[in-house]
What we know:
The structure holds two protein chains of two kinds. Chain A is an alpha/beta fold. Chain A has helices spanning 42-50, 80-85, 92-98, 114-128, 144-159; strands at 2-13, 16-27, 31-35, 57-62, 65-68, 132-136, 163-167, 177-180. In chain A, the strands form two sheets. A five-stranded parallel sheet of chain A has the order 5-6-7-3-8, with helices on both faces. A three-stranded antiparallel sheet of chain A has the order 2-1-4, covered by helices on one side. In chain B, helix 2 runs antiparallel to helix 3 (40-60), helix 3 runs antiparallel to helix 6 and helix 3 runs antiparallel to helix 9 (167-178). Classes of the chains: A alpha/beta, B mainly alpha.
Amino acid sequence: MTLLRGEGLALVRGGRLLFEGLALSLGRGEALHIVGPNGCGKSSLIRLVAGLLTPNAGRIERTEAALADEGLALDRELPLARALAFWRGPRLAAAMNAFDLDDLAQVPVRLLSTGQAKRARLARVMASGAPLWLLDEPLNGLDRDGTDRLTAAAAAHRSAGGAILAASHQALSGDWRTMELGR
Amino acid sequence: MTGALVIREVRRGVSGPAWLPVAFFLLVATIVPFAVGPDARLLARIGGGALWIAALTAALLPIDRLVEPDRADGVLDQLALGGIAEEAIGAAKMIGHWLTFGPLLLIAAVPASFVVGLDGPALARTLVALAIGTPALAALAVAVAGLTAGLPRAGSLASLLLMPLAVPLVIFGAAATGDGESSALKLEAAVALLTVAGAPFVAGAAIRASRT
Lengths: 183, 212
């Protein structure tokens, strides 16, 4: 069963054609790693799949998705657990545990470090229970332990029948298909 | 989820500077007698209009915290991923903003009325007119905040945009404050209804258009 299918996608940003004729497909348990130089449209492709941008050509069909990108989208003055709970993830407790956020539950979001905030974003994606994960530069700011936790969470998500689309200029551990943009 | 959004708006308003527009409102009202002199009859005649000017300028203050922080932080994107319509976001922000702005302003209108020399019946008319008008001011603030989100110097631009849009409301609102016999109150209510009904759609379309 296909969780994401895109055909003939083209995107123009700021008068520049980022890609055209792009086809995407992700089935259950699959993971796709988008690679390419800076500015080639990796993040734009993620936002396109998320439905936050409209393609100039082509069409996208996808199932329910969760996104982790630049935006933290957590209220800075709230403790982390309450800020994450606003997003109503059905698997919040498991996600906070998986990303080692239990000790930070009562810490206000504004005090989190870069890596901790990154783990919070990833935990929100996992907590959502959405079958399709969209991760934009998921490794940025993560330490070794955080990276291992992401790898484990991604593997568990895939073995549970989920799919992942990630854009990253770093190598992702695990079994990923890669797609190169901007050639 | 829309209910949670309203609660979030109220919490952010109350924990933030919710008293700031109200303090501003009171200050502007206090300036009026200093500016036009202590003539009680003159003050009572222009007092209602002066309170509307104070309310309008107070409504400008919170505009830049209404939509732009959520756009910049990705909250609007996450809500879109969650399947919440942008119009629902606009409506929730409007309700939440009014809850932190309207009732406080109505309370502040009581001392402000005495400062500008309004008598008892005039105070009652002012409160009714402001009770009808503040939801429209909140709606305009959210719509304009959506329209200017992400633009440079959005704060000043939003003020320039909001003031002309509020002209019909001020005309009928101030008239209803001054004269209880006329049908100004009904016309004010009509303008307010139109504004409140239309603002979520303007804000929603603006939020969609501001995505990059």
